[in-house]
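Hi everyone,

Forwarding the result from last night's run.
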Amino acid sequence: MWRISLCVFLAALVSAQSQDPDSVGGAVYRAGGDVTAPLLVSKVEPAYSDEARKAKYSGTVLLSIVVDGRGVPRDIRVVRPLGLGLDEKAIEAVSKWRFNPGLKDGNPVPVRATIEVSFRLLDNQGQPMGQSRPLPAVDNGPKPASAEEAYRRGMRLLRANNLVEAKALLSKAVAMKPSWPEAWAGRATLEYRERKLAESVSDYSKAISLSEPRESWFYERGLAYAAMGHYPQANADYSRAIEMTQEKRAIYLYQRGSSYWQMQDGEKAVADLSKAIALDPALTRAYATRGEIFAAKKDWQNALADMNAWVELDPTEEAYRKLAEVRRGAGGAAEGVAGAPTRRKLSDTDASNLDLDAPKLLFPADKAELNAFPRRTVCTWEPVAGAVSYLFEWDYSADGVWSQAGNTERTGYSVAGTSFFFDFPGKEPGRWRVSALDAQGRRGRTSEWRTFEYLR
């Protein structure tokens, strides 16, 4: 008969940085440093597939999971498949496991971990049995015969958080094959975890110089630069990573936006964070950071919207605390606070001030295709010299006709800041534009219309 052996090494797997660069669903961490590993509290044994049982098939499935702040597995991915239906059986079982969540600064946070599920032929017990074991954290092997062997063993020890032996092996790989970029990048990853940031930057730079670079190397070098406070260099690396990939652009844009905010460039930060949210509407940390920026600008309506989105996506103690802080700052509901957008009737005969330039629109781009639901649309633009507020207009098309086209009287919104959000009604095309307003409420030159369309 068959037995299923479960090999769990959650606490042993540690990233090169506390925040997982592979995450596009908000801040996901790996255990290590100030982040504790999730602890398994209940598990369900996986069943054998009929196909694998008949074939007397055995082997191991390696899964990557995220344990969220409630201790529930999500984002379950097969890292090393086994086939014959066993991958699906492993996922089905692990999805029912429950954990005490990992903690950062005493608060529950999502933590990425790895699960090894081994299917083995054993005795005549008739029922699957399980056991757990940690990933070996020491290296008892002989002297490595090649750079590749040293690298493999070093990276295994790095994942097991044995930094001393891992560094010795990765340095051996670099010495044995100095033209191999992966060896330099592996050691750079370890040095980042050691917080030897200058050494990490140097090794990533060497890896990048030796071959066609990977976007992850630019991104990870950017993280090291940012940790050193070198934000312009970090943003240059994030920009290179953004140019090189579509798959991970949301998290790269989030990091660049956060870096701009560290540089006190709120306009560029909001633009990047808004792009990141449009690409991944579940990117919790992007809402959190953008909400912080809006709150600093006393744009309470947008700040409250972002903090509420954060709470909806990841209801942690930190999220509720930040929402409460913004509510205290706002002093009431969004509609009742100073600076909140107000509806305004528009007419072609309104007084104008043509000395005010048209705002330069930032995001969304013209003809943007947005794939988010709910259809919360955030529009941003650059400030105009001499403007005290702005007039925002949006419209939708029904059967090819814009709803406000030809109307001598329309509705817009008077906005104190340089961003505005609204919930778009459907999949039909939409458009938006902005005018600056002077102290007397006179409109300046109006921007072009930008169009967009939701795919769902």
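The CA atoms of residues 69 and 213 lie 35 Å apart.

Cheers,
N.
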